[in-house]
Each structure stands twice: as structure tokens, then as C-alpha cells.
Design a protein that fits this description.
Blueprint lengths: L8 H18 L6 H15 L1 H6 L1 H4 L10 H21 L13 H7 L3 H21 L4 H10 L3 H21 L6
Helix pairs in contact: 8-9
């Protein structure tokens, strides 16, 4: 386990802020989940246009936006590629660098089943994305772009997300012995 981070959180925060400012100035605020909704709407408009127009949610997207939000898919692809490259370059510098290892806290509470761990991660991610879309955005849109633009809905989302995460962690790890 390494005592020093590779990059200071302060430097990373400033870099993220500058990148966000540049992205907002050049394109628009950063967000990912809308691209999936737009894609669903475009496909639905092509397959069942009547249904798409009668559905308030799908009617807002699709034909009006078309595939013109292509930068969104580039962002999704960039996240996948960037995450993979970063894991490859710096994966051995992480606390759980051994392939297949799990955080001891998880292992002590829930066992060492990779399936259970992956299922929990997928379920948590799904709930987070569902809640974020319900709030009119996604986690990156609300937490990064929205808060930086002082959007009230994003502050509410941020407070509720962290508050819920803290309560859920306390609930899940309530019997922790270590």
C-alpha cells in the first residue's frame, strides 16, 4: 500500500475544473447519461414513432436531437479507453493492486465471491444512474457540471447522493468487526 498519492487531489481538482471550463466553452456542459436516452429515443422514433411521440420522456429527445450529440458517444468511449489505459499504467500503484483482490472490509462483511461483488457494484451503479436520470441528469452532469454552474438541482442531488451513500455504508457495514 502506498502512502503517497500519484497526484495531489488539489492538482487533480484544478485540472478537472480547467477541463470542465474548456469543455463547457467549446461544446456544452459535461454529461454522459443523456447520450443513452437520446440513442433510445432515436431508435424508438424510427421503430415506433407514435409511441415515441406519445411518451413525454422520449418525445423530448430523438428526432429533435438526432445523432447530433455524437460527442456524447465519444465521451463514453473516451471514458472506457481512458479508464483502461489508466488501469494499465497505474493499476499496480493502487492499494488493491493484486489481481483478483477485494477490499478487506468487503471481504470480511460479505465474503470473497466476485459474482456477489460485481452484482452489488452493478446494482449500485444502476440505482445511481436511475436516480440521476430521475433528477434530470447523470452523476457527472450533476456533480461536475451542474454544481460548477451553481444549479440548485445539482446541489440537491449531490447532498442526497452523498447522504444516502453514507447511510447505506453505515447500514451495510454495521456489523463490521475490523
Amino acid at each position: 500500500m502506498h502512502d503517497k498519492a500519484i497526484i495531489s487531489w488539489k492538482v487533480a481538482g484544478v485540472a478537472l475544473g480547467l477541463l470542465l471550463t474548456l469543455a463547457t466553452a467549446l461544446v456544452k456542459p459535461l454529461g454522459v447519461s443523456t447520450q443513452f436516452v437520446v440513442t433510445d429515443a432515436v431508435i424508438t422514433h424510427r421503430i415506433a414513432p407514435g409511441f415515441a411521440e406519445s411518451n413525454d420522456y422520449l418525445a423530448r429527445y430523438g428526432e429533435k436531437e438526432g445523432w447530433g450529440v455524437g460527442y456524447g458517444w465519444m465521451l463514453v468511449l473516451g471514458m472506457l479507453v481512458g479508464g483502461g489505459v489508466t488501469a494499465r499504467l497505474f493499476g499496480d500503484k493502487q492499494p488493491q493492486a493484486d489481481k483478483g483482490s477485494m477490499p478487506p472490509m468487503w471481504k470480511n462483511q460479505f465474503g470473497d465471491s466476485r459474482f456477489k461483488r460485481n452484482l452489488a457494484a452493478f446494482g449500485g451503479g444502476f440505482l445511481l444512474l436511475f436516480g440521476a436520470r430521475l433528477a434530470g441528469g447523470c452523476t457527472s452532469g450533476h456533480m461536475i457540471s451542474g454544481i460548477s454552474q451553481l444549479a440548485v438541482s445539482s446541489f440537491i442531488f449531490g447532498v442526497l447522493t452523498f447522504g444516502t451513500a453514507i447511510l447505506m455504508a453505515k447500514f451495510l457495514y454495521r456489523n463490521r468487526n475490523t
